TrEMBL record:
Belongs to the major royal jelly protein family. It comes from the Eukaryota. Residues 1-19 form the signal peptide. This is Yellow-x. Pfam families: MRJP. Keywords: Secreted, Signal. Its main location: secreted. It is found in: Secreted. The keyword Signal applies.
Amino acid sequence: MLPLLVLAVLAAAAAQNDTQPPRPPAPRREQFRVIYEWNSIDYEWRSPEDRDAYLSTNRYIPQNVLISGINFYGENLFVTVPRMLDGVPATLATIPVQQSDTAPKLRPFPTWEANAAGNCSALQFVQNIEIDKNGIMWILDNGRVGTLTQNPDPKCAPSLVLIDLKTGKNEMERITFPADILNPNSTYLNDLVVDNRDGDYAYITDNSAVDPGIIVFRRSDKKSWKVRDSKSMLSSPDATAFRINGTSVNLPVNIDGIALGPQFLTADDQVDRTVYYCPLSSFHLYAINASVLRNEKLGSADGALRPYVVDVGTKASQTDGMKMDANGVLFYGLIGNSTIAEWNTTVDFHVGQRTIARDPNYIQWVDRFTFDDHGNVYVIVNRLYNFVKGHVNTNEVNYRILKSHTGSKSYVFAEDLKPANVPGAAAAPTLAASLLVLALAHLIA
């Protein structure tokens, strides 16, 4: 009976694929090239005296400033500078898209005052941001600073901060996460994706060493909840060792990277999306439908998420950041291989992974990706392994931004679908059938 069911699913998937329009020709590709690189990060200071004052009081320690996240809007690239160590003057900043300097100084965003350390109305620890299709910037502010020091300071509560970039006013709306959702002493808000449907949702990875999970935030009523799955969200003992260019580091880090696939129609004619995620210390990529994460009841029952999680497959190495484009192509790093890879999610993961760049000298710890509006993808490379071990050498290049033309745009601009029974709605490419086949294959095995 089970083989017949598998054949039926395969036939249905094939029939659906036959209804799809021909794929557009592959976009023109170019090799990744370095557009920015820094030995150490500096800022656009209000005055030379101000810089000297920060240096003399250890509020600015150049070797402690690491760029991590990246995003694009208008004429700027936004970069995040998490306060893992002391001496980080601003935790969110901009640099220009158009190059005028190969090592531009960071301009604090929105202002210097909005980045004041110790002021809980200001940004304290920004690991990552996202900018949705409506020009809203979603900022993860952990609140707790000094996470790599002996005494992290949880003075400020973990929050989500929203800024409407369209207005130009850059006013911050702060939503503090409830204490029963996040423990301010252990949470680590790492990355997020935004789903601009049904009142806007964010799916956020919390790689807390104590209570890892995915936080779901609904903007329409500012409600949040957390879902957990120990099997897919905890680090794997066989993947905690990293070795890059002769340097070894042990990092047992839980759920980390997250990506959001295009919309698809479910068997019962509902619009859904697939959320992909992985622990940093794991070789596996996992998937779950966004509709499952949106079910608040699954946030309170132990093991409730497990039946809905799909193990998509294994990668050649561990992955930190990853990003989906609007056509369902996933871009991700393979840290131990000094590689940037991609996977077209319409193809089976086991055979569809593809290396698009590999260089042990220039690709040393891929962190985050972003897309601009001209078909380019940008990648942060930050040698995080040296930073964690306290081995940053400011006499050599530590941080790079790479760029390649791929013809891609961000997943936030993916096509909006309507149920098939709505007049004028077109058949939609879907990952649901392939995930079901994969799940059944695991069942048979």
